[in-house]
Design brief:
- The structure holds two protein chains of two kinds.
- Chain A is an all-alpha fold.
- Chain A has 15 helices and no strands.
- Chain A folds into two domains: 55 residues, no CATH class; 172 residues, MetI-like (MetI-like fold), CATH 1.10.3720.
- Chain A is globular and about 75 Å long.
- In chain A, 78% of the residues lie in helices and 0% in strands.
- Chain A starts with a helix and ends with a helix.
- By secondary structure, chain B is an all-alpha fold.
- Chain B folds into two domains: 50 residues; 235 residues, MetI-like fold (Orthogonal Bundle).
- Chain B contains 13 helices and no strands.
- In chain B, helix 1 packs across helix 13, helix 3 runs parallel beside helix 7 and helix 7 packs antiparallel against helix 10.
- The N and C termini of chain B lie far apart (55 Å).
- The chains are: A mainly alpha, B mainly alpha.
- At the A-B interface, helix 1, helix 4, helix 5, helix 6 and helix 10 of A face helix 1, helix 3, helix 4, helix 5 and helix 6 of B.
Chain lengths: 276, 307
């Protein structure tokens, strides 16, 4: 009995220690965002700022970083990417899963090949092409290469295969067109898969630095990661107070979204992750 | 109307139906096919082709140079260093984050009350902007004003210049890498664990697997096979793709001590604009991914087949 009890305590202690290590960066981020420059230089370990400096640091960050632009760009780019990915992938996956499609086999091979190729592998020719078309520094450049997600096709395909055919037959007998079936029967029933994919897609593109770094050189089109990089390069010095304030503001949206919908987040990542 | 004609009619309507269904399918799949060619297939073919040229952005003309780029790669010290660093980084981050992810998942699985809380905490880094958190890590690792070295000096250890010294920079980046991916691996392992039927544990106990460790090796570990294989592959691929932290914190330095594959490609292709040469590097990168995927399928075929 005591053995079980001790085991439980050890487990709890281990988990707590690990949790503390995971949370440490967040704790220091919040604490440093509220410190004055001199506090930062003298008292690294005291977590509670001696002079509360939150307002000043946040004001400085908001003054130097066009936060509204960055967040808007982030939302617009992620939203557009997600919209196109779903609009392109769902009809394709439906055709492959539920219709007599003679090219379904060949499509499957293409999808499996596509799963292997990350943006890092296609970035060079795409950059050259966008440069030739004078499309650098535009939303088109940020969004276009991601409008096709083979991963989305793959995931929806798995999901649709498990859907009963009767549903589709009934809709056909009602005289619905195939496009109508996709819009009014398939999409509403695919909702769990759509939300799971939404989380996967938004997390991936909100965080992406590689591609925006390549095609964007103007502040006006910067996504959050890129904007933070500009801010850091411009400030350069050791003004960690303002830097941490900026970091906090930029990290917050996704973290809040995660905390509010964490069950869906974990489900989404598990679902997309395990099937990837 | 004779019955023969009727049968022929039914047959042809069926054939017509199939044909129209095939046409509808083509139409529905068309946007995906076009975009797939435009943004995946063509660029891959182009990158392979460019790897055989001396194409540089800004110059109009280019020549085909055969395997010259590849011959150059073999002797390129930066590229070799970069490959080696990527290997080291992967060899540190992948095993540690897999082991810790599994450990945390097992601990959380047994936890009753605080389960949801711990899961949230460990998963938090996955939902955080890595570029932003890298900046926080830079502060933590700061040699003079950073809290980590302040902590070390409390116990009398002179802290190293974590991100600034060539002998510690890869370790520091690995710490960030592990911190970032433990939660992701944990969530995948948790999903795998909940899929194991409870009766198996009861059966194992009847069969004499008395200790938790026995049950782990008898039931949990083999049943987790497919999950583990997946976590291993995804961890390795993600580690090979490390870029953000390097770009943000070290720019490959000091002295190329943290030069990694994607950073070198980025530098060659998009900073020095040597597209041909960078394309050859990209082909090597793609080859690594293909080999990893191939290994995964091989193992999948051989070992983890019982579902």
């Amino acid at each position: 009995m005591t053995g079980i009890h001790a085991g439980r305590i050890v487990r709890f202690a281990l988990l707590s220690l690990g949790a503390l290590l995971i949370l440490a960066p967040y704790i220091f981020m919040i604490s440093t965002a509220g410190k004055t420059q001199s506090d930062i230089f003298t008292a690294a370990l005291s977590l509670i700022p001696q002079h509360v400096y939150f307002a000043e640091n946040f004001a400085k960050a908001l003054d130097k970083v066009p936060m509204a632009t960055l967040l808007w760009n982030g939302v617009a780019v992620c939203g557009l990417i997600f919209f196109f990915q779903v609009a392109v992938a769902i009809p394709c996956a439906y055709a492959m899963a539920k219709l007599k499609f003679r090219a379904a086999r060949a499509m499957m091979v293409l999808v499996m090949l596509g799963l292997l190729v990350p943006i890092h592998a296609t970035a060079l020719p795409l950059y050259v092409a966008f440069d030739k078309l004078s499309l650098l520094n535009s939303y088109v450049a940020l969004v276009a290469p991601f409008t096709i997600s083979v991963f989305a096709i793959f995931m929806f395909l798995q999901f649709f295969r498990a859907m009963p055919d009767d549903l589709i037959h009934a809709a056909r007998l009602d005289g619905m067109s195939e496009l109508g079936i996709v819009a009014r029967v398939i999409v509403p029933n695919a909702w769990p898969a759509v939300t799971a994919f939404a989380i996967f897609s938004v997390v991936a593109h909100w965080n992406d630095l590689y591609w925006p770094l390549i095609v964007i050189s103007k502040q006006a089109y910067a996504t959050p990661p890129l904007g933070l990089m500009y801010f850091r390069a411009a400030e350069a010095g050791d003004d960690y107070g303002a830097l941490m304030a900026a970091t906090l503001i930029i990290t917050l949206p996704l973290v809040v979204a995660f905390l509010l919908a964490q069950k869906r987040f974990v489900e989404g990542i598990t679902m997309t992750g395990l099937k990837g | 109307m004779s019955s023969v004609a009727l049968a022929g009619n039914v047959l042809s309507t069926a054939a017509l139906r199939a044909r129209s269904e095939d046409r509808t399918a083509w139409l529905l799949a068309l946007p995906a096919i076009v975009l797939l060619f435009l943004f995946v297939l063509l660029p891959v073919i182009a990158v392979i082709f460019l790897g055989f040229t001396d194409f540089e952005l800004g110059y109009g003309k280019f020549r085909i140079v055969g395997f010259e780029n590849y011959a150059h790669l073999i002797t390129d010290r930066t590229f070799r260093k970069s490959l080696w660093n990527t290997t080291l980084y992967t060899a540190m981050v992948a095993p540690v984050s897999i082991a810790l992810g599994l450990g945390v998942a097992l601990l959380i699985e047994g936890e009753l009350r605080a389960r949801a809380f711990f899961r949230t905490v460990y998963f938090l880094p996955v939902a955080s902007l890595i570029v932003a958190m890298a900046t926080v890590w830079q502060y933590i690792f700061h040699p003079t004003i950073g809290p980590l070295n302040a902590l070390l000096s409390l116990v009398g250890i002179p802290g190293p210049n974590w991100l600034g010294a060539s002998n510690t920079v890869l370790y520091s980046l690995s710490i960030i890498g592990v911190w970032q991916s433990v939660g992701f691996n944990m969530v995948l392992f948790l999903a795998g664990l909940t899929a194991i039927p409870r009766e198996l544990y009861a059966a194992a106990e009847v069969d004499g697997a008395k200790s938790a460790l026995d049950r782990f090796f008898l039931v949990t570990w083999p049943m987790l096979g497919p999950t583990t294989l997946f976590v291993v592959t995804i961890s390795i691929t993600n580690a090979v793709k490390v870029f953000e932290t390097v770009k943000m914190l070290t720019d490959g330095g000091p002295n190329k001590a943290s030069e990694v594959l994607l950073f070198t490609i980025y530098q060659e292709g998009f900073v020095y604009m040597r597209v041909g040469y960078a394309s050859a590097m990209t082909v090597v990168f793609l080859a690594i991914l293909v080999v990893l995927m191939f290994l995964q399928y091989r193992v999948l075929d051989r070992r983890v087949h019982y579902t």
